[in-house]
Design brief:
By secondary structure, the protein is an all-beta fold. It has one domain. Helices cover 0% and strands 40% of the residues. The strands form 2 sheets. Strands 1, 2, 4, 7, 8, 9, 11 and 14 form an 8-stranded mixed β-sheet that branches. Strands 6-5-10-3-12-13 form a 6-stranded antiparallel β-sheet, with no helix packed on it. A hairpin with a 5-residue loop joins strand 5 and strand 6. It is globular and about 45 Å long.
Length: 207
């Protein structure tokens, strides 16, 4: 299995009653990668796994941003008011050059607006909603990788139960993660945030 950095605690996604999108960012800080160049043919992001739940998944977008600022959307799509209670998504996003294995009856490219059924655990392998993992092809492995969860409607908080980044060459990798919330009135760059805005949470790095 490829080397991975991931969470070992759950994160409740921000969802204020404010009539505006709310954003939760989880920063996974990767350190000490021996193969530190994402342009190297031997290095890259080979998979991303997400385990989450949301009572209205069709209003949720989850993005991944590299230390160099390259970004793809893992989940997203057409929004609708349909409920998705009592569902756990324990899914993996894979490179576009690989072979997807979505849950039976679902699209290979992730789309929020599908016929999700309550009291079901989904465990398929999907291509990202927008972009490919191969697009993380410049800059360093070391640095801040950002998982950004955007909830576009009020009511119905989601929970990120687990998230893992699988690097093709994990030699010497170590990682920690932090979490902070944004709202449209308080969005600032990471450099402008003080430590009082950050919550340190233990990280689990598995090799």
């Amino acid at each position: 299995m490829y080397g991975q950095c991931g969470l070992n605690s759950t994160v409740t996604m921000q969802d204020l009653t404010n009539g505006q999108p709310d954003t939760t960012q989880i920063i996974i800080q990767v350190n000490n990668a021996a193969s530190n160049d994402l342009s190297s043919p031997d290095q890259g992001l080979c998979a991303v796994s997400l385990k989450f739940r949301h009572p209205f998944v069709k209003e949720l977008m989850i993005e991944l941003i590299s230390p160099a600022g390259q970004k793809i959307s893992l989940t997203g799509g057409q929004m609708s008011p349909a409920n998705t209670p009592f569902i756990i998504w324990d899914v993996t996003f894979i490179p576009c050059s690989a072979s997807a294995a979505p849950d039976p009856g679902f699209k290979e490219i992730w789309e929020n607006n599908q016929n999700w059924q309550s009291f079901t655990n989904y465990t398929g392998q999907y291509f990202p909603h927008i972009g490919c993992l191969e697009e993380f092809n410049s800059g360093t492995v070391n640095g801040n990788w950002t998982i950004r969860c955007i909830d576009y409607e009020d009511q119905g908080k989601g929970t990120l139960l687990d998230a893992r980044l699988f690097f093709c060459d994990d030699s010497s990798i170590a990682c920690i993660h932090t979490r902070f919330f944004e709202t449209p009135s308080t969005i600032q760059s990471m450099k402008e945030w003080t430590w009082t805005h950050l919550m340190w949470v233990p990280i689990q790095c598995v090799r």
